[in-house]
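Instructor's aside before we start: the two examples that follow are unrelated to each other. I chose them only because their records fit on one page, so don't look for a connection. First example below.
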Amino acid sequence: MNHQRQMIGDEQETSFIIHHSSFIILTLLIAVFAIFFSVLSIQQHRAFLTNGLDLGNVDQALWNTAQGRFLQFTLMAPVESRLALHVEPILLFFVPFYWLNLGRPELLLIVQATVVALGAWPLYQIALIHLAPSLSPTPNSPLSISNYQLLIIPAAYLLLPTLQSAVLFDFHAVTMAPTFLLFAFLALERKQNGRFLLFAVLAMACKEDMPLTVAM
């Protein structure tokens, strides 16, 4: 009996270690992506490899908003408003930083890379929900192998070339939308209606056509 209890205790301890180590690895993957692509996108900007569309006019529109000229820019005269191009309410979250004289293109690029990287977190949680039965330890399928295999899914997301290209192509608010959609879907899976509504609204705030995506 004592031997069986010891074996159960050892299995539970192993499960705890593996469970937490997988989260640590996932956190490291997210951090590495966010830091690497923040630095790379900033280097591109400082090497004059970014453009007025859209990083330049977003930065100017936010600065003008902080000065009392709501989303105005001068890049595409006679067009004077960012709203003539896209409706992106989420940009208003950056205005306080411009009020405090902390707003600049580098901030936009860092936030974009970080938000995109965070999309790996809900993706892992969704995989955990749907593949939970396969995580039960059996003689032929150790818990450690199954848990670490789940990391392939968020890793594949972070390694997606189109995602990386979007992060490195100036700044576009819609690039952050997939992360909010993934968090919304996770909330839906967990039946957390409040969180679902929050992240659905954030996704819809990224671009004028995102409400249609959320509705679908």
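Example two begins here.
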Amino acid sequence: MSPHSHHHPLPPSPPPPRPPPPTSTLNLEELFHVSMLQLASESEAESLSALHLLERSLVPNPQPDPISPPELIRGVVKMLCHPHAAKPATKVLLALCLAEPNRSAAVGVGAVGGVMEAVAEMECSTAERALAALELMCTVAEGAAELRSHALAVPMMVEMMGRLEGYRGKEYAMSVLAVIYGGDKEVAAAPPEEVARAVALALQGECSARGRRKGALLLKMLTESDRPLDVSHDGHDDSGCVMDDEF
């Protein structure tokens, strides 16, 4: 009998490899869970690692409405005052605040006060991102209320308008001031004339059409303090926030 007369069946072909799963809600939840644990640790290196992981995942390809656990945002806010962590922390905070549901959560864990306490020590580009996130948080009622109750809000925004070189940072500061002076309560933290001078000076430099519009609105509020306007939601769809490499 020929040795080739009996054919052994070939083993079945292995199934083709599955394609890598897309970035899903589950993967995002896992990312948030791991990062939250690292941010909750006492190790600054662990926290910094978590921020870089979040930055790589959220900033280049923003996810549609990445709903974040409040404790994660609390951990990010905690790192705003650390010199080596402020840059990635502001990038992550801004990326999270682009999703409207996260803004109330950020306000609830003290992000408004966290930005106020840390922004003066930040480099210009980092401070711009922090103010952009602050402006977004002020589009929700509780964020605007928290801002108006902060004693340093007005003097800090005046200082930022004078210190920041780029026009975007000045615009964010003017937007925040418009929220403050657009409230129902009288603002006594700084004389309106002093704020108006700072705004007028900021408008003399490089400024976009949006910035001039914001500045004109703010100057009008400062001169009509007896008839305050509510603009806490002004610019909601015109926030001007960008997520590029230089920013």
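The two ends are 79 Å apart (CA to CA).
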